[in-house]
Amino acid sequence: MVNLKCKKYKGNRVKALQRDNFECKLCGENNYKKLCVHHIDGNGKKKNGKALKVKEQNNNLDNLMTLCFRCHNVLHFSQRPKVWSYKYRECIKCGTDKVMHRGKGLCQKCYSKQHRLDNIERERTRQAKYYKERGKYLLKLNIIKKARS
Fold first, then answer.
1. Do 14 and 61 share a domain, yes or no?
2. H or E element at residue 5
3. 60 and 121 share a domain?
4. How confident is the model at residue 21 (pLDDT cuts 50, 70, 90)?
5. Contact between residue 82 and residue 38 where contact means Cβ atoms under 8 Å apart
6. Which residues face 81 on adjacent strands?
7. In a domain, 106, yes or no
8. Which of 11, 13, 56, 136 is a good FRET partner for 22, with 20 to 30 A between their CA atoms?
9. At 144, which helix (H) or strand (E)?
10. What single DSSP character describes residue 53?
11. 34 class by beta-carbon count within 10 Å (0-12 exposed, 13-18 middle, 19+ buried)
């Protein structure tokens, strides 16, 4: 069952679960293994990616709400700021922020273009290496043939 001696949330975690009848407040999930306690104001363990000190955490019973993990993730995902990229404000090649960010600071169009160019360069390098090795092999073969004759 649930650990009633849990010291998380200053003992209010279990009280919040009991108050909410061990059910998710959004979807009604009642499997206690799939439940968690959500800080309504966001002052839990972390805020903006930084760990909060115990004094800064708001563990009041009024600030706690029982959710299942699925609803908890949906809730946190919907609260994320809508930014083009966490590291870049716009595409580093074309400067747009209208087209979806793909990776490495590039928009979808520039990323696809760069990916094609990288593949072409990779194939050229592979072919050059192949022909270089094949040339060495043929040269050795010719040397052996000349030595035998």
1. yes
2. none
3. no
4. very high
5. no
6. none
7. yes
8. 56
9. helix 108-148
10. P
11. middle
At 2 the pLDDT is 53
> Which residues have a Cβ under 8 Å from the Cβ of 66 and sit 6 or more positions away?
16, 17, 19, 20, 22, 23, 24, 25, 35, 36, 37, 38
Picking from 18-22, 92-96, 102-106, which range would have the lowest pLDDT averaged per residue? 102-106
Full residue range of the structural domain in which residue 35 is found? 8-78
Q: Note the pLDDT tens digit of each residue in 43-71.
A: 776 666 666 676 667 778 888 899 999 88
Q: Which residues of 45-60 are buried (b: 16+ CB within 10 A; e: fewer)?
A: eeeeeeebeeeebbbe
User: Same structural domain for residues 25 and 62?
Assistant: yes
Number of domains in the chain: 2
Question: In terms of pLDDT, which residue wins out, 16 or 79?
Answer: 16
DSSP state of 67: E
Tokens of 82: 């809508």
Q: Is 51 helix (H, G, I), strand (E, B) or coil?
A: strand
Mean pLDDT of all residues in 77-84:
63
Closest by Cα among 40, 43, 35 to 17 = 35
